[in-house]
Specification:
It is a single chain. Helix content is 55%, strand content 0%. It is extended, with a radius of gyration of 15 Å. It is an all-alpha fold. It contains three helices and no strands. It starts with 14 loop residues before the first helix and ends in an 8-residue tail after the last helix. The longest helix is centred in the C-terminal third of the chain and has 22 residues, at 37-58.
Length: 71
């Protein structure tokens, strides 16, 4: 494992992380309201369970890797 330090605010260097954030902003956040950090976490957990189930149906090869988060 090799750790690479990226420059701040450089989305080209951090594409995988930036894509994950973009996916959450477009798929999870729109139209939701959160009463507390615990409410956010519970809604996110429920959404991740659904998203990961959909991912397993759409692409079984990626679902075979336990611990991998959506996307």
């Amino acid at each position: 494992v090799k750790v690479i330090i990226c420059r701040p605010r450089d989305p080209e260097a951090k594409g995988l992380v930036e894509r994950a954030h973009d996916h959450l902003e477009r798929s999870f956040l729109p139209g939701r309201r959160f009463g507390s950090p615990a409410d956010f976490n519970s809604q996110l957990s429920a959404w991740l369970a659904t998203a990961n189930r959909l991912m397993a149906v759409q692409n079984p090869a990626r679902a075979a890797r336990p611990g991998r988060c959506y996307p």
